[in-house]
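Handout, page 2. Input:
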Amino acid sequence: MTIAGVVIETAPGAAPRVAARLVREPGLEVHGGDGDHRIAAVFAGADGQALTAFAEGLLAGDEEVLGVFPTYVADPSAGVGSEG
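Output:
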């Protein structure tokens, strides 16, 4: 299991709309944002490849999302983590 804190960068003013869509995304918990163009969230998935697939899918499927930036990635079951 991989746990990752991520910052999701959106087009200016789009963060509230994107966050509303993201709350339905499995494996993702939206925790806040700046109300304009950044969203703070936590991703939980099977492994690092699942995180990559999530980020690529979000970028490809939502034109208001400009970037997905992991800030901390950990595998609690292995006792491994690294700050980004």
